[in-house]
Structure formats: C-alpha cells, structure tokens
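Human: Here is a favour to ask of a fellow structure person. Comparing notes only helps if you start from a blank page. I am asking you to supply a protein in sequence and structure-token form. Write it directly below this note and I will take it from there.

Assistant:
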Amino acid sequence: MFGNMKINESTFASSNASEMRNSAAGTGKKAAGAAAGKTGAAADAGRDEAIRHWYKGENRDTIIYLLIAIFFLELIIGGIAFFYGIMHAKPSLAGGPPEAQFPILGWAIGAVAAPVALLLIVHLSGLWVSNTLERERQPGKPGSERMVPKRLRYFYACVQHAPTVVILLGILLLAAALVFVDGMFSAVVAFGAALKPYIPWIAGSIAALLAACYLGRLLLIYRHRRMEQEYAYRREVLEKTGIVLVSKGSIPLNRGIEPLQAVDGGGYALPPGPAYTPEEAAADAAALEAMGQRGIWLHPQGDVPPLAVMCCGQGAVWPGMGRELYDHFPAARAAMDRIARAADWDVLALLDETDVEKIGLTRWQQPYLFLLEYAQWSHLASLGLRPSLICGHSLGELIALCLAGVYEPEVAWYILDTRSTHMAELEARATRETGMMAVPAEASVIEEARKTWPQLYVSNYNSPRQFIISGPRDVLLEARKSLRKRRIPAIMLNVSLAFHHPSMRVLRDMSLRRLNALAMQAPQIPMLSCITTRPYPDDQPGICEHIGDLDENSVRWVECVQAMWQRDGIRHFVEMGPQDTLCGLVNDIEPQALCLAAGRKGKEAEGMRQTCARLYALGHLTHDGVARHRQRWLDAAPAPAASAEAPAAPAARAVAPAKDELPEAARKVLEILAAACGRDADSLKPEMDLRYDLALRSSRFPLIVQEVEEELGISVDFEALLHVATVGDLLRVLASLAPAEREPGEVAPLSAPQHGSGEDLPPLCCFDLGCCDEDGRPLPLVLDPAARGMGAHAGDVLAVWGPDAQALPLAELLGALAPLGMTFALPDAALEDCLSLEQLGGHLYGLPALTALTALPETVHRACGRLDGILLCAPADRALAADEMEALCRSAKACGVRYVYALRWLHGGDAAHVAPWQEAGEAAARELGLPWRVVCVDDGGRPPIPRELGDLLARALTHGTSDRVLWRRAPADAPVRDWQWLERPELFPRVFSAAVAHEAMPWPEAARPSSRQMLACAQFSRYADPRLAGHGALPQDGQPWLPLSELLQTMLESGRLQLPWLEPTGFSDLRFAAPLPLPEAVTRECRITARSQSWLLQDGVMTRMCHVRLQSRDLAPNLRRINHFSPLARGMVFLAAAAGSLPPLWDGEMAVTGPDLPLEDFYAGCGMAEGWRLLEELAPAGDDLWQGRFDGMAQGIAPAGKSGYCSLLSAVDAILQAACRIMEETVPRAELAGGRLLWPQGWRLSGIGFIRFADAGLLCGARMPWRIQLRRGWDDERLQRYDAQVVDADGRVLLTLHQMEFEKDVRPQEGAGA
C-alpha cells in the first residue's frame, strides 16, 4: 500500500500518504531550490557583466529601442506643432490669405525637453527597480533571485543599466549646437521652409507605409491561425480515432517511407512497415527521438514483446483526476457509470472534489482509485489491449483482480468500499503506537538496521534503493536518528497504522469469510501476486487466502518486477493509476524496460491519447479496436457490456444507426447543416468536421445554433458546444437536449441512467387510479406488505411482449424478478440487452416473430412447458385491437396463465384515461376470472433511478392490491404521504410508517421516501413490552437497556418492508453505539432509514443488500423528548429469494475440556431478570473455544406470530452473553463489580461483521436444545473478537456469526441519547 514511491538523492515523492509527500517534497524543493538559486545567481552575474558596457551586448538592443521611442516621440511633437500652425494661421498682409505660422521655438523646446523627460523617467524607474530587486535579493538566501521571472529580471537589468545618460548628453549637445552654433538654427528654419510644400506627400507616404505594415500583420495572423486550425484538426483526428496524421515530407528520415494507409471511414495511419535494420535505425535515431517527443512513433521491427498491466496503490491522488476521462472517452465514461450504479453514494462527485485532504483519506481514496483505474482499463481494453499478465502494487492488487476477471466490477466495488470503511475505522481508533518510515538506501543498510532493532519490519521492497519499514513508533524514531547521522534521509510517514505489517492480521479473519461468500472465478488473464511473486491460484479459497495475506505481509515489488522480466519475458509495462509512480520504480529495477502510464496529472486526456498512440505503434492495440473506439464516438449512448476475453471492458456497438433510422430531430439538424454548407443532407456523415469538411466558419455557427433552437424548440447552452467538432458531436449534444420525437404509436424509449446514483431525480410515486379526490386526481397508493399481489412466485414463467418491446429497458424492468429464478420469454431482438438477467439468476427464452398476439400463450407454453404470467408492454399512442385482447385472455386462460400485467407508457403530463384495448381486456379477464392489472407509467421523459422500475414491478406483482395504478415522477416538494405503506403490527410489530409521525418527528431535508428508500419509525417502551424491564441495569442509574436482539429485529423488519418479496438471510457490517436506556414511563422513539442497494452473489445466492440506519431521539435531563437524534445502530441487511448454503465455521464436534463457568453471579451482577438469562451452561472446549447450551424457545423470547427469525436473533443475545462471560473470566483487570453492563467496564460492543441464517425450512425442523459454540479470534488489551455458530440437537448449523467485536473504550459508558 505504501510502496508506490520514487526516490532519488534530492527528492522524495511518496505514493501513499499526502503528508509524507508534502514533507518529502519540501526537502527536495529546498535542495533543488538551493542548486537552482546558485545557478540563477551565476547566470545573473554573467548577465550583469555582459551589460556593463553601454555599447555592447544586449545594450545594443536597448539603445535601438530607446532611439525608436525618441523617433516616434519627435514625430508626435512635430505633428502637434504642424497642426498648431494651421489652426493659428494669420495673413501676413492686410487682406491677404492666411498663412500657417509654424511654432519654431515651441517645437525646438518640445523636441529637446520631451526626450529628456522620457530618459529621466526611464532612468529613475531603473533605479527604483534595481533597489527593489536588491532588497528582495537577500544575501545568503538561496533562490531569492528566482522570486522574479527570468525574462522580467533581464528586462529590469536592461532598464537599470540603460545608457540614458549617454543619450541625454547627446540630446543636450544637439540642442546646444542648434542654439550656439552660428547659422545652425537658421539652416534648420530654411530647411523647414523648403520642406513645407512636401509635408502632405511625406504624411501620405507614412500613412501608406503604416497601412502596408498593417496588411502584412493581418497576413501573418491569418497564416498563424491556419496553422493553429491544422494542428487542432490533427488533434481531433487523434482524439476520435487514435490515428496520427503525418505528412511524408515532414519526417526527416534518411530513407523514404511507404504512403499512408487509408483507414475505413476516413483518415490515414502509418503502415507497420517497412522494418528498419539496426544500422538504418541508428542513422535516424535523432529524428525518431524528436518525433517521439512530438507524440509520433513508428512501428518497430520484429515481434511484439509481451506486455504487463500494473495497477497502482494508494498515495498518488490529485483533485479532478478522472474528470477528463469521463468527458472525453466513452468507454471510460460507461465504466464509471457502471460503478456509480452499484454505489450507494455519489461516487462521481469525487471527480469534482477540490479538497486534497478529503480525497487523500483512506475512506474515499480507495474507491476513487478503483473508479479511475477501472475506467482507464476499460478504455484500453476497448481498443483491443490484451496484456500477457496483470499485477498490482498493494491496494492495486485488489483492483488488478477485477481487471483479470476474477470478480465482476460490482463485486470489486463492494470489496473496496467495505474495506475502505473498515480501514478508516481502524485509523480513527488507532493509538499511533506503530508507524512507518521511508528509507532511500541500499539493502545492506536496511538489513543492518533490522539487526540493530529486531522489532523493525520491511513493509515494502519498492526498488533497490527504496524501502518502507514499519514497527513500534519509538523504535522507528530511534532508527531514524541513527540513519540521519549517516546522512540517510529517513522520513516518517504521517500514518496512524503500520500497513503491510503482521499487526494488520486484525483484518484477515474479517475478510476471509466475506470473500469466500462472494462470486469469484479463475483469472481470465494471468495474475501475479506482489506478496508471493507467483501466479494467483485458480480456486476461490486460494484466491481469498492470497487476498487475506495482502495486508499483513511485505510487498515485494522488486522481486515481482524481476520475475516478470526474467521469468515471463515482459518487456513492456502499462501503469493504471493517477500518475507514473510504478513506472519510476520499474525503471529503477530494470532500466531497459519500456513503461507507459495511463494517467498524467493535470493532462489526463493528452496522456491517455499519447499512451494509446504509443501502444498502437508498438502493436499492442489492434486496428479493429481503434475502429470500434471511433464508432463509439459516433454512438450517442454507449453502454457497458461484458466480453469473454475482457470481462471488465464495455463492448462497443457494431454499427452506427442507418440514415433512415435517425430520429426526426436529427434529420432536421442535418437539413439545417446541409443548407448552411450547400451540400445534400444525405451526403453528411457523423465523422465530418464542421470547419474543414463543411467549411462552416465560426461566425456562421451561432446562426446555425439559433436556427436549430427555433426548429426544435430547445435552448442550447454554450458550454455544451465547447467540445463539438464534428457532425456526430453536434447531433449527440442536441439529442440530449431535444424532446423525444416519436412516430405515431412508437414507444417512448427509456434511456439508461446518466448517473449511477440518481440522487438528483425525484422518485416515481404510486397512485391508485381507482381512488380519486374531489378534484378527480388519483390518491397515493397505500402499499400493503402482507398482500399476496397477483400470485407471482419464484420460478414462474413470464412472457414479455409488446410492439417495439426491445426499445424498452427490459433488463431494468425485470432485474428484481430475475433473482427469484423466473424464466422470461422475450422477443429475439431483446435477448442481447437482457443477458444480465441470467447473471442475476433468471432464465431467458427467445420468442420468434408472432403472426398474432393470440399465439403468444400457446407458443410459450409449448416451449417452456407452462406459462404463469404475461407482461404486456403497451406503447403510447398505439392502440391494440380489442378483439386481440379478448382472444389473448381466452388463450391465456386455456394455457393456465394466472395473471396478466400491462405496462402502458404515457407522454409526459397525459391523463391516465382508460384505453379501448385496456377496457376490452379488463372485461374479458373479468368474465374468465383471470387477474388483469394495468400500470400507467409517466416518467416525464427522465431516466429512471437504477433498480427503480424493477423494484416497483416486483412489488406490484407480489404485493400489489390495485387493478389500475399510475407510476408518476413526484414533484420536488412532494409530501411524505405520497409514499406510504399499510402498517401490519401482527407481522411487523416494531416498525410503523413515517407518514403518520413525520409531522411530530423531525426528519432531515434530504430524507425522502421512494421505491429505493423507506422512512419509518420505531418505539420501545417498558410499558408496551414489560419483559424489557428485566433486561440489565445501567451503571449510572440502574435502568434497563434495549436488547441487541430488538435492534436486529427492527433492522430486519425494516429491510423486509423495503423489499417485501424477499426473505432476510443475514446481516453485515453492523455497528452499534452505546446502549439505549429505557426509563420507566418513557417511550423511546427512533427514526429508521432503510435504503436498498445493488444485488450481490453471496454463497451462491443472488442477494439484495439494504442499508438500515437507526437514530434514537434524545432525552432532556427531565426525560422530555427533544428534537435531537443520536446514532444507535447501522448495518446491512441481506435479503434473497431463499437462504443459501450455510457452511460451518469449523468441522467436528466440540468436546468440553473444563468445568462449567458459573453464570448466576454473572447474571446477578448484570441485572438480568430470569427471562433474559438465556445460557443454561457454558464451558471451555479447547484453546480459545467454548460451548454452551441455549433454549431457543424460552418463554418471552420468541412470541408466536411475530417473526420466524426471533429465535435466531435471541440466539445472538445468548452469544453476546457468552462472550461477555468469557471476557469477565479471561480478560486481565476486568471490573467485576455489580451494576454494570454485560461486558466488563471500560469495554463496549462496537460491531458484528457477518451474520448468516440457515434456510427457513431448516429452522422449522430444528430440534431443541440448541448449542452455542464460540471461538476467540483476537485477544489483546484493546480488542476482543469472537466467532460463533448455533447448532441444533441434530448438529445442523442454524446461524453463523463472525467478528463480534469489543473495544476498549476510554469514554464513560452512557446510554444513547441519555
């Protein structure tokens, strides 16, 4: 993690901690500044020496400049005198014509005084500048000379030493000559009188000269702009096609090259040959190097050597990284959108984050790096990059596993987001007893230090002269002091933990169980471990072991690079990451290696294009890949798709849409462009450049945009046109602004979401069209979590049909039903877009073209063996025949169809009236007794929130109650009551709707109910539930506190209410605050936020995650409720169609090895009443192993009819009691006094990592008594961790619990909200 660094003698650039980079960079800057200061001082001394003589060196230019200024000043004075004489013309004779009176004396005084004043001003300015610079140039302060730019220093030096005195003396001598030399003044007057008739000719000549100069300047500006346009055109070609346009005559090679090869679709590329021999190449080495510096490379001779992709770890982040990738590269943008759809928070906001400290935090840096590197890889893979090997440095290894195809990007996101959260928690509670130090020295120095201080550990072998060592902080400080005495710049890293150190084993056990539950496969591309320097195994347990070893073992990057170079023959390397950190390390290890970086700080787009051009020249990118990339530029909506060879790379569309398939708005734009450029509209192609191919001047473009706005009725933002260069660019921008144009009867397509989180969109609300208010507006639909809906079940066969159904987002619609194992019969044209349903657990069947709608049920029934339901996707403005609906219902009834569901899209704002085909279908279904329901969808033309449509459809099919429903996008100020559900206290006793209590209980402004987020409330009272009065006694006042099982049951009910068609299978990442006190005669109120997240394969079962957060309302000292809430608990609830396999934590039977631990005194000291004393016995069963007995059906623990999981959750209470009794017995210096919580004083329950339930069918047949088996996984003075499992009398595992964690708490034990 901390090894991606580059060290030399004078600089030190860290790749993991921003503080280390700052301190190291400061050290390097001081040394570099001193050297630069000396160099600058020497240069200035030489410069000053060169300008001491007023007639030599640079002063010659200064004299010329001053003389030119004086010349123009004299012209101005003469012109003023000339016009003055004309304005004051007088007749020389009475009655004669007026004659101009030239002011000879005034002109002479001005001609002398003005230059003198100018020179005095210049001289005085030079003295002031000189004094200012001398004050800033402090003696003994290196680099102070560089406080002023080099050119300004030169200019100031010239001004300071300008020969103003010499010129001034010359002017004064000239004036004296005019006055004192006899006849000189008269000669000047005579010369002026003789010159007077020619003044108009002289003025005209000067004017003509100035005009000629101005025209010449315009010509130079025109040629300069033409060169800029040519350069911009070549850059645009490189941006869109990856092709470098080079004129043959501009390549200064000693031998000719072949003509440029034409590329399909336009453009040219350098051919791959002819190859150059070493002798010929030597003669052109200088020319080729110069071309390379300009971003142009030629194809080398021989076979293409193997290439390795490297993924960078933490430390090299900078604000704004990834923004240019998102804006300029479609494949990278599609990859980022894919990650954003899987995230629960707005990860794309990191692209615009300017706070360096924030993105440098572990919590945000790790997800940010994955987002960036996955986007870089997706772009390169879309161009055809197929590396021979993939590896990663520290955190980069987890990212590399995704690129190698070990797990999907969604799984990678879950791993890295969860890992960053855990590491941030570890850093927050770290005591900084351990640390890390960077040492740029030889290996012998490191070994000598380790012998002197054996507690030191080498965390990173980054290069032969760069190591990161870790250990106790006091030992590190002592070692640093010794190393600095030897002039070795050892630098302490500003970190709170020692990463890649044996102490990080605290993360291992937490990771292994979580990782083994996820979906993984063998690497599709060979993957190298930076810990073992050997290839990754193919089996999932082995892969998880390697990942678990990552945090607690050294990163052996030197051996890794050497193995790739020597064993695997890798000669070319490509680094994924923000900068070229790993490239510097690779070049230090193997100087002959060619390493390219996909990222460049501040110049991402330029750096990526140059890397792509270099890879193409080297032969690592294929011509087909470049052509596909060009096609993606022409497509308006690129979408990611999996590929067999590169599973993480989004696939491109095969062909562009045909001309006749363009929407009406696009055709209108083409007609406007054709009229403007004088071409035929059919001849315009998307790749044509607006300026060069169509000859549209910039002055003409605003008029075109204005005409487009009037024609389409839209408003175009100027900023949206900044990157428009081609016809395709313009169509793509205008398509995102224009309203959807639809043919009569055409379905309005639902576009893919533009942002993954969709937080900026108001949710779709459900309205009951059968119940309206006084104004005829439909009332909000009250959802019933206990309703049976239309009888849809797991494993149903569902036929999906409709005109142009493939234009609808069927994958989004059916995404929540696929994990139920349903089979979907879809039109053949829609199968390709719905392949993701198979990954979610669904099955697909392609429907051939149907001659009639009535043939649909029989066709599907014959192919699949049965048909349970039909989903009609009815387009707007396209009526279906009534007789077809009646015949369809009769055919469906004959084939055993149980329900028919119709989705009917509306134009934005249209009334949801009953269509004729809908009325006919309802009448026929009613007559036949066939359930028939219709949903009108009015999304306002906005893209849906991810998983929104699927959740609504699944809830309607499984728990819907109304026959006519409207899904309409809620306004921004929609009240909470627009999304409410019916309370069912017999099934969900702890949770009730927030719509009732929303006015009385304050909620944050951001809290908004939707299909994705539920707001609810909970209340806990000793009066309502008298058994709570016997649960414990807090040390402060002896009050009981809320049991852990009650918290878990509340979270579980919230998850089930949010996703009622799924069953809970467990919890993950539970975090707890202080226990909640339960005062007498006081009801404790809590507000609940349950937010559904993406699907994830857990233990072979597609699982839906739901994040639940509980906050308790605080009490004033007089026990009155106040409007302030404190965190109580949070965590993830897992839900699925059914629980997966539940492997035991350890094999074999446990045998008791010691006497039972006494429990009576323990329970008495904790204040536990009889009903809460769950353990019947507890005894040791080996080293760090214990076994107890628990009666899961104890009175008052699992009341009948509340939930089938109450017994299991009460078993979690029993595990908690057993762990606390073990801590009391084994933890040194544990407080045993009475009046305390379950756990010893000074400790607190901080969280639980993982809880998994067995299948509900297994729970029903579980025989009593149940046994509780515990194993202590971590034991030190600040942290205790326990794993546990619950086994029934037959030895079947009912529940597994991982990482019940207790922390040493220095804070006083107070109840939440007390």
